Amino acid sequence: MQRLDGDGAVRVFDVNIKANPPFYVMEYLKLGDFRKFLAKRTTTTASALDMFLSVCECVAKCHAANITHRDLKPENILFRGVDDPILSDFGICKIDDLPLGTTVFEMRRRGTPLYMAPEQLKDNLVQSKPADVFALGTILQADIGDRIRDAALKDQIADISHKCREFVPERRAKIEDLKHSVQRIRGDVQQRLDKRPGLHRLGMMVNALRQRVGKIDHSLLMEEAEETL
CATH 1.10.645.10: does it fit domain 32-226? Predict the structure, then answer.
């Protein structure tokens, strides 16, 4: 955590391992996690992709510091600001290139099977940065792609996710490739919005109304690429 110093990760202000019990002091983050963000009525496809790209940046910073998180999931992505997601819960992270595996028993207790790479489910098999890419691919597919109604957009996301979730770690997409692919999809979504500015404004009005009354006539929903998730 000291290596990151709060850059893309939760800040730790104090640690005392000699105390009884040992403790550490972290920054207080009250804006919720990524799952709650995706569940908001006002979350659009564009904003979800923007936040996901920011999360990828956070993971890339960890990897640049030779830290593998190993437990990426929406609940471990918190918000320092409304547009500032950061990573939390580094309890089973891997530092540097030390040979570190995890027993199946430990991962069942501490990991989240849906987001865990195959190598994390095998006893004491060395795990590294590709495990984080696998988790990001799962978040992209299960938590964003599966909520989108546009068939073409769903297929694009599924293809990217598949490349991140290859069974063999060495065959998985690199995190930079993942970012570039999602940026390309985000650009396609923006082009659709730019071609229909009137509909986009209607969508913003619909979102505002949703937030006020909690429900809305489905006949007023935006088109697939521009509607809320």
Answer: no
pLDDT tens by residue, 16-29: 888 889 888 888 88
Distance CA(45)–CA(183), nearest Å, equals 13
Q: What is the CA radius of gyration of the chain?
A: 19
Residues in a beta bridge with 24: 15
Q: Which residues of 152-183 are buried (b: 16+ CB within 10 A; e: fewer)?
A: ebbebbeebbebbbbeebeebbebeebbebbe
The half-sphere exposure of 2 on its side-chain side, counting CA atoms within 13 A, is: 3
CA angle 221, 215, 142 (to 5 degrees): 65
pTM of the model: 0.81
What are the φ and ψ backbone dihedral angles of 67, each rounded to 5 degrees? -120, 125
